[in-house]
Amino acid sequence: MKPYSKLTLTISELGADGDGVAFVNANFPVYVFGTIPGDVVDVEVTEPHKSFARAKLNKIRKFSNLRVKPKCNLFDVCGGCQIQQMDYKAQLIFKNNKVKKNLDSVLLSGDYQMFDTLGCGNVYRFRNKALIPFAKNSDGKIVAGFFAKGSHEIVDCQDCMIGVEENRIIQKIVKEHLIDFNIEPYNEVLHQGVFRYLQIRKAFATNELMVSLIVNSDSIAGETELVNKLVTALPNIKDISILPNKENTNVIKGREFRSVFGNGFITDFIGKIKFKISPLSFYQVNPLQTKVLYSKALEFANLSGNETVFDLYCGVGTISLFLAKSAKKVFGVEIIPQAINDANENAEINGIKNTEFICGKAEEVIPQLIEKQHVTADVVVVDPPRKGCDKSLLETIVMMKPKTMVYVSCDSSTLARDVKILTDNGFELTKVQPVDMFPHSVHIETVAQLKLKM
Questions:
Q1: What class is the 129-277 domain?
Q2: What is the pLDDT of residues 175-223, one digit of tens each?
Q3: pLDDT by residue (tens digit) across 437-450?
Q4: CATH T-level fold of 6-67
Q5: How far is the C-alpha of 43 from the C-alpha of 50, rounded, in Å?
Q6: List of residues 6+ apart from 113 with CB closer than 8 A
Q7: CA 54 to chain centre
Q8: Prediction pTM value
Q9: CA distance 310 to 389
Q10: Using one digit for the tens of pLDDT, what is the confidence trace for 114-141?
Q11: Which of 260, 254, 381, 372 minimizes the C-alpha distance to 327?
């Protein structure tokens, strides 16, 4: 296949990244962004490869019956929502099939319960956090929004439909402030300029807002004026902070913050558990669906009140605190010191006394607990990053031999890889529940239950 070849294709399925896939000569896949199964499209080949090709959509000749009109008019250029043009019920089926396909590709037996994906009640305005980059375009005008698909070019977006409505107001005020005070947006190529990112968080349960200004300096001009503008427009703003980041790096946030208004935090609830959120805290971006996710993890743990539970990759203790009220004791292990500090504070806020949070690598911490405190785990819960569990940690879990393991995953391909290792070493996969946290994207959270073979 040659570059710039023009083809008419029928899209038959979605790829793992959300691009429509058509097959030429039965087995040669062509990937087309912005298309869904059932579309008949005119395309131009942009990236021919030996075993596949990518193509640009020129025209849709026939629309799929799964297609809906996206609410966002920047959908075709922004990389955030890959499948917003697809009916939501069809999105859930795609995500369910994605998880099952990944698992069945590595397992000898598909003898496990696979439940339908739990959908999100609100498919717009569900995201409680926005991280908005600022820059200057080729005309020298300040733009703010989101990165285009596969690039670092900013798409100027005043109102993202999956974010809260207050984001638009805050972004407009900050943008006007930069213009009024001649504050230069940061240029990541030249490592020049001041203003890097605007972070906005909203606590859905309390309606509290937090505004964080990530800057290539210790302060910005007109801080008092900016605070007055923001708080006058939105009185539910409870904290405004400066986050200095003067490093020449792609890491977005620095290590410290300085509150110029408020006490440095807002509070929110997931279910009945209260959380204190600082500008540097990790916190799930869809708190309403997080309750669904963690409730399912609690259900799969099947606790009676007498169990000792290990929550590995515990973060700020969100899952640990959910489990603690139904367990005898919960040990949370996390390598990031700030997360452990937040976890201890969250436990104290909620009056939960049967948790113990330990900073370190789980594969090093657990053997010490077993040796010194003679601790044995009845249930192990893991919620690793996208790359999945470290191999050494899986070896440690196999050594521990918990009766039940609950694996919370944000990437079903690495979930499948790790489940294969566990099932080859004495466990069996029993239940799988996908939970949609991110409508209109290809991302899917999954809760899997594994049992030790007796």
A1: mainly beta
A2: 999 999 999 999 988 889 999 999 999 999 999 999 999 999 999 999 9
A3: 999 999 999 999 99
A4: OB fold (Dihydrolipoamide Acetyltransferase, E2P) (2.40.50)
A5: 19
A6: 430, 431, 432
A7: 26
A8: 0.91
A9: 15
A10: 999 999 999 999 999 999 999 998 889 9
A11: 381
Tell me if 6-67 shares its fold with 129-277.
yes
d(CA 16, CA 187): 33
- CA 213 to CA 199: how far, in whole Å? 6
Q: Which of 72, 120, 314, 410 is catalytic?
A: 410
Note if 314 is an active site residue: no
Which burial class, exposed, middle or buried, applies to 304 when counting CB atoms under 10 A from its CB (0-12, 13-18, 19+)? exposed
What is the b/e burial string over 352-391, where b = at least 16 CB atoms within 10 angstroms of the residue's CB?
beebbbbbeebbebbeebeeeeebebbbbbbbbeeebbbe
Report how far residue 241's alpha carbon sits from residue 261's, in angstroms, rounded to the nearest whole number: 7
Parse the chain into domains and list their residue ranges: 6-67, 90-121+286-452, 129-277
As given in the structure block, the two tokens for residue 441 are: 């994207």
Residues in the chain: 454
Residues 200 and 130: their CA atoms lie apart, in Å, by 5
- Give me the phi and psi of 197, to 5 degrees please: -140, 155
Would you state the CATH architecture of domain 90-121+286-452?
A: 3-Layer(aba) Sandwich (3.40)
User: Using an 8 Å Cβ cutoff, are 448 and 410 in contact?
Assistant: no
